[in-house]
Design goal:
Helix content is 22%, strand content 32%. The protein is α+β, with helices and mostly antiparallel strands and 168 residues long.
Length: 168
């Protein structure tokens, strides 16, 4: 099935049940103990910057963006990013990330961070952060903390605590 058949939509509340199922399939119950999840628990994600992929009306992929401060830098935490097993390896996840990054930059985000696999995310523009310079509530591998930065913000210069930031 070609990616051209996938429709990408801004997330809305009607997608919640499908997104929960997709994340359960992808990550299982272990997803709730991750450091990034500790940040997400601090407040809501931003639906305007969160997207789903739909195949003939079925939601088959999702990416969410949570507003954060990384030290004193206004940004977003990307994730979870998940694709149903039936639709993996088609480029759907990468396209969702591209869409989310473009939306974040357009809204004035200065950095988008995630804890992820560098070989997967580097082609999408993510760069390493300085190991040990950023802290999250819970254990994480600092070598997997990556960022896309905008303007004069530099991923290696980010430092401080990553925490939810309510923009309202």
């Amino acid at each position: 099935m070609p990616i051209q058949n996938i429709v990408f939509l801004t997330e809305d509340a009607s997608h919640d049940a499908a997104i929960d199922l997709i994340n359960e399939e992808a990550f299982g119950p272990g997803r709730f103990v991750r450091a990034a999840e500790r940040v997400r628990e601090q407040g809501p994600h931003d639906r305007r910057l969160s997207f789903v992929g739909s195949d003939q009306g079925e939601i088959i992929a999702s990416v969410r963006m949570t507003p954060i401060l990384a030290g004193n830098v206004n940004g977003h935490l990307l994730g979870p990013l998940a694709v149903r097993p039936s639709h993996k390896s088609l480029g759907i996840g990468r396209e969702l990330v591209r869409i989310a990054l473009a939306a974040a930059e357009k809204t004035g985000s200065h950095a988008v961070l995630l804890v992820g696999d560098p070989p997967y995310y580097a082609p999408l523009g993510f760069r390493p952060t300085k190991p040990g310079a950023l802290d999250m509530p819970g254990p994480f591998d600092p070598r997997r903390l990556l960022a896309v930065c905008y303007g004069d913000v530099d991923a290696m210069a980010l430092e401080g605590e990553i925490r939810h930031f309510n923009r309202d």
